[in-house]
Amino acid sequence: MVEVVEIAKKYLGSLSPAIILLFSILATAGFIKWSARLADSFRTIMKHPAYVILVLIVAAVLFYFYFKFAAPLLE
Q: Where do transmembrane segments lie in this chain (predicted)?
């Protein structure tokens, strides 16, 4: 059993940098996709004044629910 753990430590020690590099590449790609979608959504909302008002209403409702229900649970 100890031999298996030692072998796993050896391989994990040599593969850790590659795993970290792969994870950082995937995280960066996800962030770039997310920011592009966010920019597209922002442009769509700003095209019409009614969309801006709708965003403000939705934000107000979400803030209300947060401070009414979630914030007391976190205290």
A: 15-36, 48-67
